[in-house]
Amino acid sequence: MERFVRLVVAGGLALVAGLWIATLAVPQTPGWVAGVALAVAGVAGLAAGIGREIRVGE
């Protein structure tokens, strides 16, 4: 499988999982912070996967 596909899929799954964890946890607790961190990592994975395929000026 292409690397960008793996990054997009993993990023999307991490984003969804992080958002669920952050939603279900009590704000400002370690579980909530972990959920937010996972969501941020998911966004970074999505951006990295999409960014690998964008070609500017070609």
TrEMBL record:
Q: Which keywords appear in this protein's UniProt record, sorted alphabetically? A: Membrane, Transmembrane, Transmembrane helix
Q: Where are the transmembrane segments?
A: 7-26, 32-51
Name of the featured protein:
Uncharacterized protein
Q: What species was this sequence derived from?
A: Haloarcula limicola
